[in-house]
Amino acid sequence: MPLVLPELPFAKDALEPYISARTLEFHYGKHHNAYVVNGSKLIAGTDLETADNEEIIKKTAGDSQKAGIFNNAAQVWNHSFYWKCMKPGGGGAPTGKIADKIKADFGSFEKFVEEFKTAGATQFGSGWAWLVLENDRLKIVKTANADNPLVHGQKPLLTVDVWEHAYYLDYQNRRPDYLAVFVEKLINWDFVSSCL
Ligand code: MN
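Above: inputs. Below: predicted complex with manganese (II) ion.
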């Protein structure tokens, strides 16, 4: 099965008070799981049944006939990646290689934070904000709905989910507050560094 629901890398209540267990019960248990179930149904019996998640995303991107498969497969990938981007006791400024790279490509950590939060806050409707590597340079991008930087020649290093289901139970309409907390309290820089 190419589309699987991975174990969460932390307990459901581990990100409290910043992201509640109730949000994770819905976000992981219902939304993420539904993308796995629905995507798996759509690829059953097709030549994509034996492909891996990343291959499915790349092979169906931009094909309007396969938009259903792309949307579900990309959302499976995006969420599996998003969980790994957070940890209890995370956030704040990184150290080491990723810190140096951020300083080199954005000028300062503060500039990176500003760009990342702005991308998340200004994504109209549902989507994602990302830190990616493109031609060996760090860049902030935002994508709509299920779209993923992998199909735009970029390597994802960090993402934040800005679909309302990611924050509405805890922050209602205050997306900027959720983004601030994500940066200050949740980012798993060890994981981000491991992707660099
Ligand atoms: Mn989500």
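The chain is about 50% helix and 10% strand.
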